[in-house]
Design goal:
By secondary structure, this protein is α/β, with parallel strands linked by helices. Among the domains are: 180 residues, FAD/NAD(P)-binding domain; 77 residues, no CATH class. It is 34% helix and 20% strand. Strands 8-7-16-17-18-15-19 form a seven-stranded mixed beta sheet, with helices on both faces. Strands 10-3-2-14-20 form a five-stranded parallel beta sheet, covered by helices on one side. The chain has a four-stranded mixed beta sheet with strand order 1-13-12-11, with helices on one face. Strand 7 and strand 8 form a beta hairpin. The longest helix has 24 residues. The chain binds flavin-adenine dinucleotide (FAD). Flavin-adenine dinucleotide binds next to helix 1 and helix 15.
Amino acid sequence: MSNETYDVIVIGAGPGGAVSAALLAKQGVKTLLLDKNDRAGGKALTLSSKGFSYELWPVSGGPSHSSRWEELIKELELDVELLTPEGAILTLYRNPSGEYVPYQAPGPIPPTPEEAEGLGRFFNDMMSLSPQEIDALDEVTCHEFVSRYQVPQAFYSSLAMQSNIVFVVPIDLLAASEMVKTIRDMQSGGAGCYFKGGYGKISEGCAKAVERYGSEVRLRTRVERIAIEEGQVRGVVTDKGTFHAPIVISNAGIQPTVLKLVGEEQFDKGYVNYVKDLVPSLGIMGIRYFLSKPVLDHPMYLTFSDDNYFNVERATRAKAGQLPEDALVFITVPSLYDPSLAPAGKQCALVGTLCPPGADMENPQIFWDKLEQTVAKIWPELPKYIEHKEYYGTADVSALTREHVLPGQGGECIGLGQIVGQCGRHKPSAKAPLQGLFYVGCDAGGYGCGTHHGVDSGFRVAHMVLQYHQMHQGAF
Ligand SMILES: Cc1cc2nc3c(=O)[nH]c(=O)nc-3n(C[C@H](O)[C@H](O)[C@H](O)COP(=O)(O)OP(=O)(O)OC[C@H]3O[C@@H](n4cnc5c(N)ncnc54)[C@H](O)[C@@H]3O)c2cc1C
């Protein structure tokens, strides 16, 4: 058993954990970053196999510019290159005749004068809301917000698709405050970014920075328990030994942290009930296609129709096995961002669609079948060049990252759902009600889209923990 002592231990090298650990290490805080996987990156890690480098599922980021990525690369002097190709995203909409056509707001059918006016007011209001007015939208859903304006159906569907892909929640649960802040960031900074060498390079770069600043990283180390004595964090017990610290930051998810790593007996019942009640995002599941020939020519695709975005009703129907005519499709092609990520003349396409979040999903095959049918319909050439394919589902997402501690949880795409009651002023506090315990990542401390959300939390939680560390170190 190890007996090493640190100022801070960070459990998990996902975007949130890796960023917070590196920023603390830079401040001279003796930090230990642990992850059960053999590389940093969490749900957005990059693998290499048979000449391909790829994420396990489609991953692309936003905002691209004026982003936390740029701030991070500068702050930590990371040797990581952000790729922001022009026109990276092709969005296809199934028009009323059933054909998939490139989508641009307001959609293929010219808007009526009332719709044009409603759309103008929607954008104008969204871009000019004050911070206080945005806060007031914490309790308003995106559906309720957009329903204040008369907008074309295709535009509504596109906003619903973005609710599903950017936040991975139904449009009628997404908090409008979260939507407004994130879409504003993407309107000004663009979207569809990636990193040279693979998306995981940003988290790997942070893990390297932890070591460069004199702190420590241990991969392939699973935390089994967070040690608590008299309501105070003492360290962690792992499969590789025990490590001591008065502060632990968990990137393992608020529910697994409270219910498994700490144990509910350490918290008061009200807090345990609150944590159990938190709702995860939806999941994304799909297929990795390894193609003998480049078939796709955009780094990222999104396809949607008026009948396949998820609202609560459709998500509930999908859970019961009733799927729309076509799946909503999300694809990334890593080698179209960075050609070194595939052998010459070949292509890897990472394809995903929406699904319920639980790691214990009963009927994954119907989702894979629907996705394959839709892909073959939109890209009839693609199936001809499949050399090899791999299916992934919510159980794989959970095994890689967040443990399954409650029914219907574990395989979620983001973390907690960015829904009314869980965002903005209602977001769980990054400081747990135990001395020395903090959360980082998409469950607490930040806002935005997926990985960018995790990084935003990493910045904010590192700042919070640095202050806590300084206050408890000496005179106080
Ligand atoms: C299919 C899919 C597609 C996605 N597409 C996108 C996209 O296009 N764009 C985007 O921005 N985001 C995307 N995301 C979401 C994004 O990956 C997540 O929101 C983000 O990675 C969450 O970051 P995080 O810091 O909260 O932690 P996570 O990425 O969840 O990482 C948590 C880390 O903690 C570690 N850990 C957990 N428990 C333990 C333990 N007991 N001991 C040691 N280590 C532990 C895990 O191994 C993991 O490395 C996608 C996710 C999925 C699943």
